[in-house]
User: Which sequence fits this backbone?
């Protein structure tokens, strides 16, 4: 199949796909805020946004206009360069990470007969690349907090460091066991490994749960929403941000939520394979949507943890569990 | 080390606290090394204001002393004037007053659930409890015409007769609330994260508790059975059968569990009131010349159990129409200054809001 594709076509395809990812994911990330508000409202016996457009659907546009037209304020004593770059780091790394995850099964464009793999670039160390990019994204909050010369910002970036040190080990170790089973770091191989219909979560339930917990910490979601808990540190690292700079942090956050959803779906939940009568692309959309919904559900049902409790949880509970899981997987593989 | 201490102001806006007060915190990392309460955002001088007013003028002021819970203020004021004037109110008025006070207690405790859960980032329970509190406020609106400020308990009795079918509506509401309470248990009181965060945090010294004059849930959370309704009964509390929930632990969780029990006890009390309320009787005793009522040259001290603990008024008259002196003693001053500043030392920054909420501080009441 790859043989039929000319190098120029591949290059153009990659650019088109990159633009598509940027456009579609930005839109979805924006729409995600609407979904989040509606779902939370539903769980909290409220109505949620309902003034702008039918069912408040245009709230997204209203928010966008507001963010874009707000005055751009940089505090006097802030480090202007870092202050300006930090939101871009968060947003950019989130989108770069999405470049190496496959979302749909590959398909052939009718009439011209060109096969299109639905991944911007199938890096052979895909998982490593994505995790690395998402980890690099944490530099955004870290630098933002320190650049704005605000006490709450500094507390926020200190918490970012705590969070980063806590979950990163667990994310890696929890994915190590599935990687051992599949024997590859490419997402496409993960998907093909599960093409017989048996999801990896059946073999690796512990790893799946560990990955979800670490993923929530990674995307800065409740219950690990330490960086900007308003009852404790005002807004943490975004205290001095406003307008679209502020918005970029949140586009990044929502893009990361989608990435975590895609990784969970592809690695553990059978990826974009067909299931029963449903084609693969519907399956993966459903899985990503459920994973997104699950994050909102958790937000509605759980309080925040303290920073020291997150460290305790990650280092004393989750990491040993992850290591034991890896060891057991290894023993079983050796025996089998 | 000196240089590494950052000073921050926590407040004056707080999630879950009805009013403004700020906390000046010295932070070393996220550990608090020093805490000082600053008030002054809400000083309205009520104690001084009423000195130049007749009782009917002062009546509209007292209920504004503590915003989320005006009824204990009204009850204290009314009872103090009645004691001074030697007026005995009818049984029916007493029952209606008790009912209003208990409804206010349930509403206030539901508001507290919202604040406490909001302070740890669990917005859902807060929204639920405020919804349920709203249903009580609806009943208040029907009964008194006001949702938050009722101005219902007036010296001499109560201002209005119960509307038709009010008790039936109250009964239905109690059934509904009782159905809802297990939900709060599941999501909030038995929430593993809440327990993990609240147990062993904000521990009050049990020996100091009585000596320093802490009241309400802080005492009962230390296992000390103190409740004005039982120790120094007023209205009809002597005839009612209720428990005083206590909990050992002296921490945030103990105080939460005490409040959880109090909602149930209040519902029990309300059910008894619906059953026992006399069918007829004057709701308002005639006060001689009540617009120009001369307060005798005497003083009195009355106390009520509010949802935050013992709540007392001292009122003195000098034989003229004006009140000579009024002094309010509530839970918030001692809890908000002495106790809070003490509890916050060596705590994490994450716990500040939670501890502050658990003490039941009402900033408008600190400054009056």
Assistant:
């Amino acid at each position: 199949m790859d043989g039929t594709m000319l190098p120029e076509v591949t290059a153009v395809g990659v650019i088109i796909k990159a633009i598509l990812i940027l456009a579609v994911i930005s839109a979805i990330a924006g729409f995600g805020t609407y979904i989040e508000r509606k779902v939370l409202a539903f769980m909290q016996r409220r109505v949620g946004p309902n003034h702008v457009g039918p069912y408040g659907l245009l709230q997204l546009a209203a928010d966008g206009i507001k963010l874009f037209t707000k005055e751009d304020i940089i505090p006097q004593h802030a480090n202007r360069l870092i202050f300006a770059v930090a939101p871009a780091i968060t947003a950019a790394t989130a989108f770069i990470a999405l470049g190496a995850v496959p979302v749909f099964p590959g398909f052939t464009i009718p009439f011209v007969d060109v096969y299109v793999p639905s991944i911007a670039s199938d890096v052979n160390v895909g998982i490593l690349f994505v995790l690395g990019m998402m980890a690099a994204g944490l530099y955004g909050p870290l630098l933002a907090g320190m650049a704005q010369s605000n006490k709450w910002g500094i507390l926020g970036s200190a918490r970012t460091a705590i969070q980063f040190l806590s979950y990163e080990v667990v994310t890696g170790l929890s994915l190590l066991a599935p990687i051992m089973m599949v024997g590859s770091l490419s997402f496409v191989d993960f998907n093909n490994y599960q093409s017989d219909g048996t999801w990896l979560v059946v073999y690796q339930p512990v790893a799946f749960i560990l990955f979800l917990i670490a993923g929530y910490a990674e995307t800065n979601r409740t219950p690990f929403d330490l960086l900007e808990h308003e009852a404790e540190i005002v807004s943490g690292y975004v205290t001095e941000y406003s307008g679209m700079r502020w918005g970029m942090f949140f586009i990044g956050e929502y893009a990361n939520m989608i990435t975590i959803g895609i990784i969970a779906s592809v690695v553990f939940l059978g990826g974009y394979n067909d299931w029963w009568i449903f084609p693969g692309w519907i399956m993966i959309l459903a899985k990503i949507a459920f994973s997104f919904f699950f994050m909102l559900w958790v937000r509605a049902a759980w309080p925040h943890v303290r920073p020291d409790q997150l460290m305790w949880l990650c280092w004393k509970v989750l990491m040993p569990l992850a290591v034991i899981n890896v060891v057991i997987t290894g023993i079983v593989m050796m025996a089998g | 080390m000196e240089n590494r201490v950052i000073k921050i102001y926590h407040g004056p806006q707080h999630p879950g606290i009805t009013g403004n007060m700020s906390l000046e915190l010295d932070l070393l990392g996220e550990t608090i090394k020093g805490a000082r309460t600053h008030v002054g955002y809400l000083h309205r001088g009520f104690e001084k204001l009423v000195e130049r007013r007749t009782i009917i003028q002062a009546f509209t002021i007292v209920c504004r002393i503590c915003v989320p819970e005006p009824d204990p203020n009204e009850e204290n004021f009314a009872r103090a004037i009645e004691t001074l004037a030697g007026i005995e109110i009818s049984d029916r008025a007493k029952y209606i007053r008790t009912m209003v006070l208990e409804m206010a207690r349930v509403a206030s405790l539901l508001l507290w659930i919202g604040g406490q859960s909001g302070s740890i980032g669990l917005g859902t329970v807060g929204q639920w409890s405020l919804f349920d509190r709203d249903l009580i406020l609806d009943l208040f609106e029907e009964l008194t015409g006001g949702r938050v400020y009722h101005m219902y308990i007036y010296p001499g009795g109560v201002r209005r007769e119960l509307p038709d079918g009010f008790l039936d509506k109250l009964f239905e509401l109690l059934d509904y609330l009782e159905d809802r309470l297990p939900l709060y248990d599941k999501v909030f009181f038995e929430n593993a994260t809440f327990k993990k965060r609240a147990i062993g945090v904000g521990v009050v010294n049990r020996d100091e508790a009585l000596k320093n004059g802490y009241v309400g849930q802080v005492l009962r959370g230390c296992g000390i059975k103190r409740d004005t309704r039982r120790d120094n009964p007023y209205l009809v509390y002597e005839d009612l059968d209720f428990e005083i929930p206590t909990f050992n632990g002296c921490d945030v969780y103990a105080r939460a569990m005490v409040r959880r029990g109090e909602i149930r006890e209040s519902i029990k009390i309300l059910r008894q009131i619906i059953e026992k309320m006399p069918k007829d009787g004057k709701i308002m005793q005639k006060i001689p010349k009540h617009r120009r009522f001369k307060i005798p040259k005497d003083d009195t001290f009355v106390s009520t159990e509010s949802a935050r603990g013992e709540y007392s008024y001292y009122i003195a008259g000098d034989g003229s129409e004006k009140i000579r002196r009024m002094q309010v003693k509530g839970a918030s001053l001692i809890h908000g200054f002495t106790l809070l500043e003490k509890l916050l030392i060596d705590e994490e920054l994450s716990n500040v809001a939670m501890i502050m909420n658990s003490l039941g501080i009402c900033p408008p009441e600190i400054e009056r």
Observations:
- Residues 11-335 of chain A form one domain.
